[in-house]
Amino acid sequence: MWEKLQTLLDRAGTRTPDEEILSFPEYLDLVRREPWVTRNTFQILHDMLLSSGVEYQVIPGKPIRHRYAFFEDESLVGPFAVFGQQKAKENLVEKISNASRGLEAAKRLWILLGPPGAAKSRSMDGIKTALNAYSRTDDGKTYTLLLPTVDERLREKALFEEDGIWYLQAPIYERPLQVVPPTLRPMFLRELNSTLDPEDMDAFFEKHPHYDGVFRVEIDGLVSPYTDHVLREFMRAKGLSFGALLPYLKVRRMIYDARTKTGIGSYTPRDEKSQEAGSLVGNIDYSLLPRFGSESHPLVHDYKGELCVGANGFVEIHEILKLSDRFLYELLFATQDRFFKPEGQPPIPFNGVIIGHTNFHEYNMFLANEAFEALRSRTTFIEMPLSVHFKDEERIYAYTYSNERRGWSPEKKFVAHTAPHSLEFLSLVAVMTRLYESKQNPNLTLLQKALIYAGRADSGVDNNMARTILEEFEYVRPSEGTFGLDPRFIQNVFERTEHFQINEYQANLRRLREEEGEPALLTSIALRNPCVTPLDLYLRMENSIKETFASNKTRLRHYVEKVLPQAKRWIFAQIASDVYTAVLRDETVVETTWKRYTDHVRAYVHNTTVKHEVTQADVQPDEKFMQAIEQYLGIPDKEVFRKELSDAIASVGYQVLLSDEPSYQSAIRRYVFENEFKATENVKLLGWIKSGSSAAGVHSKEQEELDATVRYLMDRLGYCGKCAYQALTITANASSIAE
What we know:
Layout: H1 2-12, E1 21-23, H2 24-33, H3 41-50, E2 54-57, E3 65-68, H4 74-77, H5 86-100, E4 109-113, H6 120-135, E5 143-149, E6 160-162, E7 165-169, H7 185-193, H8 198-207, H9 225-238, H10 242-245, E8 250-253, E9 264-267, H11 277-281, H12 289-292, H13 306-309, E10 314-317, H14 325-336, E11 339-340, E12 348-349, E13 353-358, H15 360-368, H16 373-377, E14 379-383, H17 390-401, H18 403-406, E15 417-418, H19 422-432, H20 446-453, H21 463-475, H22 487-514, H23 521-526, E16 531-532, H24 534-548, H25 553-584, H26 587-605, E17 610-611, E18 618-619, H27 623-633, H28 638-652, H29 654-660, H30 662-674, H31 684-691, H32 700-716, H33 721-734
Parallel strand pairs: 4-13, 4-14, 9-10, 10-13, 15-16
Antiparallel strand pairs: 1-8, 2-3, 5-7, 5-8, 6-7, 11-12, 17-18
Helix pairs in contact: 3-5, 17-19, 19-24, 19-25, 22-24, 24-25, 25-30, 25-32, 25-33, 26-28, 26-30, 27-30, 28-29, 31-33
């Protein structure tokens, strides 16, 4: 055991990328082979955001939508994956893309705007984590300058010594080529770009097609006053020209790291009275005054401010609009004029990226302040509302609470099983609280809007009306998603429910041990492990809402009387569909019924006949059969639906439509179960559960059917004993089948 641990630790202690140190001539050779190591921060960020791939969604009459896999790529963002927020992600990547090409977007102050819980900080944490991971790869490598000095006063700050020369880290993590004076840059770059290896460039363009086959080494920005002073003093001490200085310079591999403030700064403002400029732009290090004699000396400045740290990297500003006026304008100078100025010091160049974030309360105060007119015109707000797509919202909670993420197994008694549809219920409730009642269609329910936004076909609204609702969403302000329950509230509900269920499970076990005799059949099934079900969550959600909104009767009534009941009914229907599947255990009958329905629909639309299932004679489409199916589908206008369905089948086929649309599957299963399946003896199953009969009164055939149904729910559909029993009970009570 010790040998394995020692091997692991030895491997972890091997040379890290940031220990790669090159001489300046070696760096120039590297640039000739791999010129992309000279990319600025905008370009590095853009390449990183595209590195995980892009999916394109083409919707006729609408702008093309882009889905950037980066934000969900755990190999880069680690635990800070962000689900949904597609529009905000597109807007952020658009700004970074434009800035990477040198457009005016690079001179704007970018601010993420959204309510609490909208993943603003999480998005920034993901980018900071990814910068660390990406800069460790060959695709993301970049370098920073090390400064030579023979000044004894700087010896203690040196990273290492070589041949009597101490090497210091350039204080704002300057890029190596920034050392080239502006007057020499045109000739220097012309010579350097003429020597680039075209074969290496072709390989780079293959992986990075967004460069359009063109990449030239450029030099953005200047070195800091500190660096300029150290190099001048070194040249004077050694009697060197600039050309003779270059062999003495060294460069080091740059690994971004927010924890060590290496290329990544992060500033959180305090209240306005206690905001201190040094935290942002750096302070005078008074311990150095005796050495250098003046507060204006470049080497007296400590360069520990967040703008210094991220001057050639990335800076995040939390609650940015809480900053005082002069701090906001300092950020504006950094983005617009590419410098900032500490008190008593020369201007410090800024070549990095600043992204702040704030909420709507601060934003509204900012808009109302006429003194911020110039700042507003130079600021770009990227709106990040809460999600209104409940399947995206579900992924947020699944990331933490799904059985797979938590490694749940039936043997675990202090981790509750997450029942199917539990997280879906939470997500649906959360999204419905964030929606407006439709102004164009007042009869439309919040549940229907949520289903439309999620692209589901079981909203009970035809496609034309659905398109109208989606267009209404684009132009209503303030946006949907800027109010309602946030993910933290939902997470609290789940965790409270789980804690209660674990303790209830332990109490029930203790009670059963104290009682004599065998527990009833279903009781023994349901008490195998603790479980969080949609019904449990409904009860806890209702309690939490009543506690939180006791003083806000309007919202309380809206959530308890409208949102929760609608969401519960829909989720219970999804649970019933699972039970129908478990009882039927034959998907071929579902597909056969669907094909029969679509054949009749196409015949109806085209005014033709269909073959009778038994006689094979040509007969007219069965209107009664079609209407029965459409009742389960919740179709409001049969003529429009049948025409659209017929056109869709002509394009993709009936099987594809059935497999791609869960609502069609649920409706057909319920139809088969409650109509064609009634004739079998298994119909007694739900009647028995509904009546609450004991195990002793169950016929052997019913017992076998019950066992098979429960086994299917558990083995194939992800249920445990408790939620399987609850699903059977819910379906029995909702079913039209008599006991």
